Amino acid sequence: MTEIEKISEELKEYDVPDELIGRIENLLANLYAEKERLLIEESWRLFPDRMGK
């Protein structure tokens, strides 16, 4: 189970509406993707010879 799924399950226990849970899941997924993108860009900056491998 992913962290997002764990958070969603916990929110359901507190009777958070499904629409709000969906929005939170989307936000968390976007933040995770942005974090991964930034990590990749940083690795390219630190190790330009590895770019594209």
Detailed description of the structure:
The protein has 53 residues and is mostly helical. It has helices at 3-13, 18-46. The model has no long low-confidence stretch (mean pLDDT 92).
Structural class: mainly alpha
Q: What proportion strand?
A: under 5%
Q: Output the helix-strand order.
A: HH
Based on Cα principal axes, name the global outline. rod-shaped
Structural Rg? 16 Å
Q: How many angstroms separate the termini?
A: 30 Å
Question: Sheet with the most strands?
Answer: none
Number of strands: 0
The low-confidence parts are: none
**Number of discrete helical segments:** 2
- Mean pLDDT across the residues is 92
Query: Considering DSSP H and I runs of 4 or more, what fraction of the residues is helical?
Result: over 70%
Present the secondary structure layout.
Elements: H1 3-13, H2 18-46
Helix pairs in contact: 1-2
Question: Can you give me a brief rundown of this structure?
Answer:
This protein is mainly alpha-helical and 53 residues long. Helix content is 75%, strand content 0%. The chain is rod-shaped.
Task: Please supply descriptive tags for the structure shown above.
rod-shaped, mainly alpha, 75% helix
